[in-house]
Amino acid sequence: MAEPIRIHRKEAVSMDQLVQQYIKSMKLAAGLNTQRIFAAWDACSGAGPFTLRRYFRLGKLYITLSSSVIRNQLYFQKAELIEKMNDYLSKDELFTADNRTVSFIQELILK
């Protein structure tokens, strides 16, 4: 009769650590971070329904809005919005803050 295979544990790892390791090993962090940034825009600005295009590159979030009135209102709240979105992202478990290519928002450009 064959002897059963024994699996030896090295050390216990929590699920959130496993998910972060998986994201890094599969090189999904940049794309996932970009999607989380877009979700932060929708949640913090309230202008998701009026957003036509979103683009993030080199710390700059480019947003094209369909309403000039909303764009004008948000223009005066840019600093607060950046702070609010970065706070939102820092609390997000799926956001990888130490990613070299896609990290926190430094500048908001409204079009």
Overall mean confidence score, pLDDT: 89
How would a textbook summarize the main sheet?
3 strands, mixed
Number of domains: 1
Task: Name the helix and strand elements from N-terminus to C-terminus, one letter apiece.
Answer: HHEEHHE
Annotate the secondary structure layout:
Layout: H1 15-25, H2 29-45, E1 51-57, E2 60-65, H3 68-75, H4 78-91, E3 107-110
Helix pairs in contact: 2-4
List keywords for this structure.
45% helix, 3 strands, 15% strand, 4 helices
Give a verbal description of the structure.
With 111 residues, the chain is an alpha+beta fold. The chain has one domain (15-110). The protein has 4 helices and 3 strands. The chain has a 3-stranded mixed beta sheet with strand order 1-2-3, with helices on one face. A hairpin with a 2-residue loop joins strand 1 (51-57) and strand 2 (60-65). Helix 2 packs across helix 4. It starts with 14 loop residues before the first helix and ends with a strand.
Write a short abstract of this structure:
The protein is an alpha+beta fold and 111 residues long.
